[in-house]
Amino acid sequence: MARKLALLILVLVVLDVPFVSAQVSTSSITGAVTDASGAVVAGAKVEAKNEETGVVFNQNTTNSGNYSFASLTPGATALP
């Protein structure tokens, strides 16, 4: 009887565990380019480079100086 009770408790515990989604495998970078006076720079070339793989993504800023790189593969984090 104790064995059946233990098995029932185990099943209830396993069924109650919420499912956890996998970690995200992409990242994004957004920002704005401004000059020394704080004015936005439209059409500036912005580059995102993965130093580990050498893959480079290029983009120009919008009329409001903004840029966004979506779905980038994250590289290793360098800790100080």
Summarize the structure.
By secondary structure, this protein is an alpha+beta fold.
Structure explained in plain terms:
The protein has 80 residues and is of the alpha+beta class. The chain has 1 helix and 4 strands, in the order αββββ. The strands form 2 sheets. Strands 1-4 form a two-stranded antiparallel ribbon. It has a two-stranded antiparallel ribbon with strand order 2-3. The termini are far apart.
Report on the biggest sheet. Answer: 2 strands, antiparallel
- What share of residues are in beta strands? 25-35%
The span between the termini is 57 Å
Helix % is 10-25%
Order of helices and strands: HEEEE
What structural category do the secondary elements indicate? alpha+beta
Mean pLDDT: 80
Specify the overall morphology.
elongated
Radius of gyration: 24 Å
Number of strands: 4
Low-confidence stretches: none
Placed side by side, the strands forming the largest sheet appear as: 1-4
Total helix count?
1
Write the layout of secondary structure elements.
Blueprint: H1 2-16, E1 27-32, E2 45-49, E3 56-60, E4 66-72
Antiparallel strand pairs: 1-4, 2-3
Tag the structure with descriptive keywords:
two-stranded antiparallel ribbon; two-stranded antiparallel sheet; 1 helix; alpha+beta; single chain; 80 residues; elongated; 4 strands
